[in-house]
Amino acid sequence: MRLDCSTPVTRDACVARDERDPLRALRDCFELPPGVVYLDGNSLGARPRATLQRAQDVVAREWGNDLIKSWNSAGWFDLPKRLGNRLAPLIGALDGEVVVTDTTSLNLFKALAAALRLQANGPGAARRTIVTERSNFPTDIYMAEGLAQWLERGYRVRLVDSAEELFGAIDADCAVLMLTHVNYRTGYQHDMAQLTRHAHAHGALALWDLAHSAGAVPLDLHAAQADFAVGCTYKYLNGGPGAPAFIWVPQRHQERFAHPLTGWWSHARPFAMAPGFAPADGIGRALCGTQPVVSLALVECGLELFEQTSMAAVREKSLALTDLFIDLVESTCAGHRLGLVTPREHARRGSHVSFTHPHGYAVMQALIERGVIGDYREPEIMRFGFTPLYTGYADVWDAVAILRDILERGAYDLALERGAVT
Ligand SMILES: *Cc1c(COP(=O)(O)O)cnc(C)c1O
Questions:
Q1: What is the pTM of this model?
Q2: DSSP secondary structure string, 263-295?
Q3: How remote is the C-alpha of 245 from its chain's centroid?
Q4: Are residues 260 and 238 in contact, defined by beta-carbon separation less than 8 angstroms?
Q5: Nearest CA residue ID for atom 3, ligand 1
Q6: Tens digit of each residue's pLDDT (9 = 90 or more) over 129-171
Q7: Ligand 1, pocket-test mutation among 103, 112, 209, 232, most atoms within 8 A of CB
Q8: Protein residues with CB under 6 Å of any ligand 1 atom
Q9: 152, 208, 287, 356: which has the fewest Cβ within 10 Å?
Q10: Cα-flanking dihedrals φ and ψ of residue 119, to 5°?
């Protein structure tokens, strides 16, 4: 619902909206420091309250007391699959198609290697191009370029700059279309089904990175007929800093899914300790080696919270929050050189909103000083993530009021030193 410009929104109206919000109770399932409006859940999700207890239990009881028995008794060994099954409904995947493991970069490498192998062993054997966007998250491009060079078979990564160029680049030489569904900088959301259809019509496979989509927007990988997908659990899924990522391989590709990181966890019988490699049946073959169990176990606390709602409800509130933020910024901060880079069109928008400002870094630091935590991405982009599980309408109001105050008073420091992470 767009706001009616003739009736200015008040803070009281935002508070009233929070009181009516069907997701209101979920906010109490998160630990957030008082006085903070946290708008960076797209980069590091907030901590579910239950996570502390779970961490205590994993470290003190499962590890401390039960020691190595916990691989069986606490289900450590099965965690990647169990968590994958719990995550699956959020992305339109089936049981036995997802594992939570490794990092997004590594999973992307495995999925891309598998996709190139599928093409090399089929009618697409002559195809040599991996198509992606120049604006993609750099690690995705680095991993693709690294793999392409490593293979020494003439593979190349083609970086496109516009939607028209993207459609044109999916041609008879394109082996894999590798895209991030929601752009990390702009919040632009691709039409996954349409692009996948286009890729298939031209003989290419489609690999999707869901880092900024999983837990943020409704996803249906099967309806879109995607070929492979990877994504993060430490962003919108609230798994904790550096929590393992996920990889999705649909049943139809599992038998022919092969990647080069053939560690013992992807073996059919890891404890046979056999000298020869034989891939596990099913999604297990997407694994590689021993996982960071403590971190992995905490992912479950984030996933559990999504079972108390639906992605449709999350999406409805996400759009309401981002609409409210855009409207309030544009109506109350006009004349302060802010430029909206996130699409206004709902279907093309993820769950974060980015504005450029010539002094974006300094303004963001001033916001953080005042308790409004977003982040900054080159060039000039201030990024604000909206996480419906714990962000309210009054939070949006307060964030914009502080932003306006900072801009009106010019209360930001242009001489600030930058930290390693912006
Ligand atoms: C956050 C993000 C990553 C992170 O990759 P890691 O290997 O977990 O560091 C990768 N790709 C995209 C598109 C991201 O947004």
A1: 0.97
A2: -GGGBSSGGG--SS--BPSGGGGG--S---HHH
A3: 9
A4: no
A5: 104
A6: 999 999 999 999 999 999 999 999 999 999 999 988 999 999 9
A7: 232
A8: 103-105, 137, 139-140, 180, 184, 209, 211-212, 232, 245
A9: 152
A10: -65, -45
